[in-house]
Amino acid sequence: MSSSIQASPVGVFDSGVGGLSVLQELRRELPHENFVYLADTGNAPYGERGDAFVKQRTLTIARHLLQEHRIKALVVACNTATTAAVAELRAALPDLPVIGVEPALKPAASSSQTHRVGVIATRGTVNSARFEQLRQAFSDGTDFRVQACDGLARAIERSVEEDPDAGPSFKEIRELCERYTRALGSFGVRTGDIDTLVLGCTHYVFVKDELRRLLGPDVHIIDTGAPIARQTRRILVQRDTLANEDSDKAPAGRLHLYTTGPLSALQAAAERWLQLGPGHCSALPA
Ligand code: DGL
């Protein structure tokens, strides 16, 4: 395998800033990889837009990342895009390794002691045929309580440029988290309680503290960032496209982020969650 492929970036995309939660884990797991991240904020949220739209955006973005950045693999850091479009994406671009993100029902089912698991995700994800298959595959012995969280990803997008103590979107986030978790049932570790909550949307990782405050210290909150990062490593190793990791000579990976929405919002998110300066971000037409 030529070293130029090994130096090519891994593409990562989401409807907006949610996939930065996956990117954090990718950078931890693969510190020598180059990454290019695309936030399709100009078209977010995907969860309430319907399958046809999400499929079209996913294919357009994958082709763009291939043509403009020669990505060697693509992480679809969005549950909604994965459930709606990953099969078409793999069929349309068979040479591109694609790593998708799906709600972690399997680990939740095997770790829950009360056998009652809450799942929060977008409307698009919970209504998808793929999610239904996943649920059926692991529901033997586990009662999954599922809630679509309309408006939550949008409020998280809006919050990135606000002050966490006083911003109106933070107030909305608190209210939505409370309403949606209450709708799932009682949380705790006693018989009949939900003892595990699956975050089925990459945006929700950024409101984990709020969820923890609402649900208490004993509830297990599961997201998929770290397993996806390990899966990405496995795929790169299998394809012999992993960046050079030899201790002293290996350079640190580079990262650039693009957005189809307001540049200032991506810059604020990159600073808040990745400690990156504004020069790492650029705007693209929607
Ligand atoms: N972050 C996305 C997900 O994991 C979707 C949020 C949205 O655009 O609705 O599903």
The termini sit apart by 35 Å
Extended strand count: 10
The secondary structure category is alpha/beta
Bound molecules: D-glutamic acid
- Please mark out the parts with pLDDT under 50 across 5 or more consecutive residues, or reply none: none
Give the SSE string: HEHEHEHEHEHHEHHEHEHEHE
Overall mean pLDDT stands at 95
Helix amount: 40-55%
Strand order of the largest sheet: 4-3-1-2-9-10
Count of discrete domains: 2
Task: Report the portion of residues in β strands.
Answer: 15-25%
Task: Work out the radius of gyration.
Answer: 19 Å
CATH topology of the largest domain: Rossmann fold
> Major beta sheet, specifics?
6 strands, parallel
Question: Which CATH class of the largest domain applies here?
Answer: Alpha Beta
CATH architecture term of the largest domain: 3-Layer(aba) Sandwich
Broad shape: globular
Main attributes?
Rossmann fold, 2 domains, alpha/beta, globular, 286 residues, 45% helix, 10 strands, six-stranded parallel β-sheet
What does this protein structure show overall?
With 286 residues, the protein is an alpha/beta fold. Helix content is 45%, strand content 15%. The chain has two domains: 158 residues, Rossmann fold (3-Layer(aba) Sandwich); 118 residues, Rossmann fold (3-Layer(aba) Sandwich), CATH 3.40.50.1860. It is built from twelve helices and ten strands. The strands form two sheets. It has a six-stranded parallel beta sheet, with helices on both faces. The radius of gyration is 19 Å and the shape is globular. The site of D-glutamic acid has 17 residues, from α4.
